[in-house]
Amino acid sequence: MTTDHVSVSSTPNTDWFREHTSRLSGSDVDAPLDDLEPLRDVIGDARVVAVGEGAHFVGEFTSTRQRVLRFLAERCGFTVLAFEFGFGEGIALDSWLRGEGDDAELAAVGGTTNAGVNPRMVRWLRRHNRTSSHPLRFVGIDTPMAGGRLRPDLEPLAEYLREVDPEVVGLIDRALGIADRFTGGSVAVAAPGWARLEAADQDALTASLARLSLRFRSMEPLYVSRGGRSAYDVALRHLEAALHTDYMFGAMRDVFTGQGLEGDTSVRDHHMAESVRWHLDNADPDTRIVLAAHNNHIQKTPVYFDGELAALPMGYYLDRVFGADYRALAQTHTAEQVADMSPDERAESGLTVAEEPLDTPEPGSVEAAVIDAGYGDDISLTNLREAPVGRLDRIRTQSATQLTPVVEAFDGVLTVPTATTYYTTGLREE
């Protein structure tokens, strides 16, 4: 793509971007990292640094994120990679990434590829952990299978309860007996399936998990005495993930039908934020986490679409908890098309992905400022930490443009000139 057709003007945004943007050398994951040194001024001493993406299934976002991961691990001491990926599936994937099993066994590792945990990323991570003196532990923070299934968290929970309280395993069997009738590859499958259940079955699923949650918490001293503190804490996170997934079945059904409550999807984002905090609380005091998720999840400001509150995002909660110890780095692009997702129950993942054409970036957007400053054909990094508040009020998200106070939402932005679709529905594919 070239930007010759775009009128380059001298505006306050243009002048500021010229002074605070640096060109990166490219997307070669194994290239030297000196060009990323300006990133230090963006992240400071933060314990949690989020690296976003403006759309899922974009190859350039994956490659650029990998280079940032290398920089943060090798030069800044980050040791944990937290992903918009199921908590339960993350445990299994981390074992594989640390070298357990052979390459072929990746096919048996569950989890969604929606947020960039794709074959390209995970195979690179496994090589990195084998060869680098700065390996990264992998953790999941999200609901299981992009909100599509309960088994990835309820099965290990049942295994734990068979050891400490076998008489209540029946509550999990009851929940799975209902859930297995409608769940699938993502919430785009599960939510419509949940809506087709009889109201009595919907209530029975929720009641089973609620009863289990109340007993689980009240029996904590007994469970810990029988199975240890660490096992209890992990099992409780599995239970929390299942509870939030059950809530999101109904919340997303309402979103898909245009009847959602204001900000209802905040439930998922709050769960992810609490998962990040849980991982930090259970790590060494000097642990630093790289957090990978969609821009809409990592931003520090509420997410609005068409003037209505869509969600209080994970980054909003993390900013409230950690303050300066949380930094958010968005990724966007100046391309003329991008991959976008549409719900489709007939698809294995519940989604179809197709490239959508885009209009020229709007005035006041990050993308227009990057182009006008002369960086539209480059991979670039802009430090927003000292940017004038109010001059940037929009950024691309999927195939749309989101109105948001960009400088308040993000500490920096990585921009790429192309957005090539890289779509997989499982980790076994290449």
From TrEMBL:
CDD domains assigned: Ere-like
Superkingdom per UniProt: Bacteria
One of the protein's GO biological processes: response to antibiotic
UniProt cross-references to PANTHER family, sorted A to Z: ESTERASE, PUTATIVE (AFU_ORTHOLOGUE AFUA_1G05850)-RELATED (PTHR31299:SF0)
Record-given protein name: Erythromycin esterase
Taxonomic lineage: Bacteria, Bacillati, Actinomycetota, Actinomycetes, Actinopolysporales
